[in-house]
Design brief:
Blueprint (H helix, E strand, L loop, with lengths): L1 E7 L2 E7 L5 H8 L18 E4 L2 E4 L12 E3 L12 H8 L9 H16 L15 H7 L10 H16 L1
Parallel strand pairs: 1-5
Antiparallel strand pairs: 1-2, 3-4, 3-5
Helix pairs in contact: 2-5
Keywords: 2Fe-2S, Iron, Iron-sulfur, Metal-binding, Oxidoreductase
Pfam family, one: Fer2
InterPro entries: 2Fe-2S-bd, 2Fe-2S-bd_dom_sf, 2Fe-2S_ferredoxin-like_sf, 2Fe-2S_ferredoxin-type, 2Fe2S_fd_BS, Aldehyde_Oxdr_Iron-Sulfur, Beta-grasp_dom_sf
Amino acid sequence: MTEIRMRVNGAVESLDVQPWVSLLDALRDRLGVTGPKKGCDQGACGACTVLADGVRINACLALAVQYDGREITTVEGLASGEELHPLQAAFIRHDGLQCGYCTPGQLCSAVAMLAEHRAGMPSAVTERSGELTEAEIRERMSGNLCRCGAYNGIVDAIRDVAAQEAR
């Protein structure tokens, strides 16, 4: 067993884990943080997406011991008290979810994706700096799958928040 400490959604957590335990399993099974979901357990679906020091990662592919001393944010940590994160509110407004299984990962990914875009990081479809087109959003969110097909609402929600930030 290895003792690790990490800040999860603002709270410092200490736990003993075996070296092969994934960050996803440590969050869900040891800390009771159930927002990140186990979808494929292979890093292909994005249901387990969390933010590690603000960068989106697939928690099913990360070993918990790799994140000793790091800041982990899950969907539970996006809201500020009772006030929803702007993306959470936009997902509701634009019907960016159906069954909701993928939604926590979609939200964490969208938060990071907007930060990446603001920082000027290009994607495979980037044509002009500053413009967040539908194609750009779809490319940047392509690591997060939605079995229900709520993609149009997800894209609309992200565009809405991006437009609000641009004002």
